[in-house]
């Protein structure tokens, strides 16, 4: 593997993360919108998921794959997925029958003065799901900026931003512009709009420092110095470390130490 990476990095246009683009006529179309509009869409998506059966779905998963077992770890595997772990406290306290009463209340066309038991608890879970969904969307945007726009030494495709804020203008703002960009690229012409500008930043520079780090606390392998530092500062890592320390007999054992598995030399 080291020989393959070394050969890739020696090709013109390569960087420490690997070789150049395999194809020359590649572009990225980045659908973007104003943050307030995006937040409203994400919140609406959660409400739509509830209306389409989210609660019965996670109830069935909980009853079959979680409830019969002990020592659940909501920081690993499928149990850490967004859309499930946010409802654990509600699922543990209420049953499927109460789910149906709450769904009837939430989807009723008329307001009811009487609120069923568990409505407040479910509301807290839904608000938390909306929060983590918005947070995840912001991380995705930051990842694109760091990975594609924040470095000048990598051969990355040009990124063209398309504004999706006003969906009533979708054809003019998104579809027509996307088609025009692709037609220009395929015809070896200049696209009708400029790509998003690239500029070097510190976070992206750290992305290029390749290394494979093993976290003995979370039992995960992290690739890259930048991602490794993010992991060490993450709430998930701290929670697992705290839980492991509490489970240690006597409580005075040292926390598991993360170690570097392998680190490729800088190029």
From TrEMBL:
UniProt superkingdom: Eukaryota
Q: Which GO terms describe its cellular component?
A: mitochondrion
Keyword entries, A-Z: ATP-binding, Metal-binding, Nucleotide-binding, Transferase, Zinc, Zinc-finger
Instruction: Please tell me whether the keyword rRNA-binding is annotated for this protein.
Output: no
Recorded GO terms, molecular function? ATP binding; tRNA dimethylallyltransferase activity; zinc ion binding
Gene Ontology biological-process entries: tRNA modification
Record Pfam families = IPPT, zf-C2H2_jaz
Domain Zinc finger double-stranded RNA binding, which positions? 213-238
What InterPro entries does the record tag this protein with?
Answer: Dimethylallyltransferase, P-loop_NTPase, Znf_C2H2_jaz, Znf_C2H2_sf
What family does this belong to?
A: Belongs to the IPP transferase family.
The molecule here is called: tRNA delta(2)-isopentenylpyrophosphate transferase
Question: What is the organism of origin for this protein?
Answer: Anopheles darlingi (Mosquito)
């Amino acid at each position: 593997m080291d020989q393959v990476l070394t050969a890739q990095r020696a090709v013109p246009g390569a960087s420490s993360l690997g070789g150049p683009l395999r194809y020359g006529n590649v572009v990225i179309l980045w659908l973007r919108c104003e943050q307030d509009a995006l937040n409203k869409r994400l919140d609406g998506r959660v409400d739509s998921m509830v209306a389409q059966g989210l609660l019965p779905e996670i109830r069935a998963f909980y009853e079959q794959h979680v409830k019969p077992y002990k020592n659940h770890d909501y920081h690993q595997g499928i149990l850490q997925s967004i859309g499930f772990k946010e409802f654990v406290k509600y699922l543990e306290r209420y049953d499927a029958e109460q789910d149906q009463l709450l769904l009837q209340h939430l989807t009723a066309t008329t307001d009811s003065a009487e609120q069923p038991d568990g409505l407040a608890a479910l509301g807290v879970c839904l608000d938390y799901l909306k929060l983590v969904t918005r947070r995840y969307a912001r991380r995705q945007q930051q990842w694109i900026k760091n990975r594609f726009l924040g470095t000048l030494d990598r051969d990355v495709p040009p990124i063209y931003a398309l504004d999706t804020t006003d969906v009533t203008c979708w054809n003019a703002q998104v579809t027509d512009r996307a088609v025009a960009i692709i037609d220009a690229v395929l015809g070896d012409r200049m696209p009708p709009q400029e790509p998003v500008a690239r500029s070097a930043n510190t976070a992206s520079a750290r992305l290029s420092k390749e290394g494979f780090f093993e976290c003995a606390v979370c039992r995960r392998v992290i690739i890259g110095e930048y991602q490794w530092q993010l992991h060490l500062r993450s709430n998930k890592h701290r929670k697992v470390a705290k839980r492991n320390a509490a489970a240690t007999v006597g409580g005075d054992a040292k926390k598991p130490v993360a170690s570097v598995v392998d680190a490729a030399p800088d190029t």
